Amino acid sequence: MATxxxxxxxxxxxxxxxxxxxxxGHGIAARIIYEVIEEMGLTKNCIAFHxxxxxxxxxxxxxxxxxxxxxxxxxxxATGFKRTRPDMLVFSYAGDGxxxxxxxxxxxxxxxxxxxxxxxxINNTNFGMTGGQMSPTSLIGQKTTSSPAGRTKELxxxxxxxxxxxxxxxxxxxxxxxxDSVPNINKTKNYIRKAFAKQMAGEGFSFVEILAPxxxxxxxxxxxxxxxxQNEVFKKYELGEFIERSAK
Amino acid sequence: MADRAIMKGNEALAEAALRAxxxxxxGYPITPxxxxxxxxxxxxxxxxxxxxxxxxxxxxxxxxxxxxLGGARVxxxxxxxxxALFHEGLSYLCECEAxxxxxxxxxxxxxxxxISASQGDYEEVVHGGGNGDSQYIVLTPASVxxxxxxxxxxxxxxxxxxxxxxxxxxxxxxxxxxxxxxxxMKEHDINKFDWAYKPLGANDTHGIQKAGWxxxxxDVYGPYRLKKFKDMHDNEQRWENVQVKDADVVCxxxxxxxRVCKEAVKKARAKGVKLGLIRLITAWPFPEKAFAExxxxxxxxxxxxxxxxxxxxxxxxxxxxxxxxxxxxxSCDVVPDSDMVVETAEAxxxxxAEEV
Lengths: 248, 356
Known about the structure:
The complex is a heterodimer of chains A (248) and B (356).
Chain A: H1 26-39, E1 46-50, E2 66-68, H2 74-84, E3 89-95, H3 96-102, H4 104-113, E4 118-123, H5 153-156, H6 162-165, E5 173-178, H7 182-200, E6 206-211, H8 215-218, H9 222-236, E7 240-244
Chain B: E1 3-8, H1 9-19, E2 22-27, H2 34-46, E3 50-53, H3 57-69, E4 73-78, H4 80-95, E5 100-106, H5 122-127, E6 137-139, H6 144-161, E7 164-170, H7 171-175, E8 177-182, E9 209-211, H8 218-235, E10 239-242, E11 249-253, H9 255-270, E12 275-280, E13 282-284, E14 300-305, H10 313-319, E15 326-330, H11 338-350
Parallel strand pairs in B: 2-3, 2-4, 4-5, 5-7, 6-7, 11-12, 11-14, 14-15
Antiparallel strand pairs in B: 1-8, 6-13, 10-12
């Protein structure tokens, strides 16, 4: 019988816990990101710009270049760096709160500029680090600590879907994956690979949203949180590749 | 060879930044600093740098942070309402020790205020920029040539201390044209710093992990930064003293107001009134050492500032340990009048002026 040995990417070797809760999606996302980076031979030639909050746990989850700046500003900080060192792989790593709330202007304008960086967004439909408040992607009806009776359009406004937001954006790549199952993890890894490859080829802005569970703040077991993703979150936020511009 | 030119203050500052090796600008249009951005929109391209017109001022500073962490010499400029949006980024530039040069071309009033000259941002810029013990050097040019000279110096200071440096100027210095000597074009090597992020070598076993908090903990980082602030305070005070040794009244002013005061000193001396001037070149560190030179029997210090509140007064009182009477001539939205400066000085000598 053929066996497959699990190999940790070198960037993550010898490190302890990433500091996230049990059943959190961040750890899987970090693993597949650094697997891709290693497969592309870019381990020593890349830098991650992390947001604050749960995303910043990832700063110490790998041992090479990383920076954690202000909440919502990972994308512009990555932009400034990439303009200075265009030969390095530069990506931002942030949550749905940072990307669609406090940093929404960067999410829009960076796509308008078609900036040659990659934005990776972990969407777990709430503000995780601060204890599970409503975020711009919380679903209608979702109970959070700041929408205790469930999100309503009247009280809280509608959630935002970046795929629809980017309908008119001329960017290199847009995809949405998930880390709920092996097939989806493998697909997501492929999206990340394409996004990074487009950046290294100088093709413009690439954006990968990754749907992830947050069992702690959803008040669920890890298994229940995966069911919620499949039964509720995927119905609102479609998985797949949505923009894939051919090379200029 | 150095070039001679007649230039607007804002454009001269922009050109001087490029000649100092600045190759990254990110910022937003706002009167009265817009000429910096407009000038760099074409000129930056000529020298092979990047100029990004950002979605707001706040974004500009976070882009600067990224470029500075990569080793570049960086610039962003604004005016009061935009400088208010600088505070978040300023705090990060200080905390993350990212060398950078920022400019506030002061305009009138709070809120939107007006687009004419004023000096109402002193407290905000000198004592207010950024949360959590942020501190940076503030330079205050009084001529177009000084805009050119100080922007060069600002980059040296920013890298010496690994800290942002702010040039606080005003609508008149920024907008007026004067003859300037521009320095030669200098190339800056982004690889010269050991603290900057750059591609790792094959044998490197770890990279740089930096954040908006110190990885060492504040018990180590606190004393380290305090020493940096003390070094800046002790070593970087800059000023120009004009006839202060025998003066009965000494004006204290910076920027456009200090030019008026210089004229007032001449006018006063011509009629036998012993007036002097301490002109700030750094507002932080406040040039306390400048006060050591003044006449011990001086009748009073006269703060001349285009503000409502007399924002520099507390610094003047602290610099003199509250041992000298302080008076003000505050002109807010109009340029101070040199005859009024002389009249106020005469009133101080006559004992009819009111102390603050």
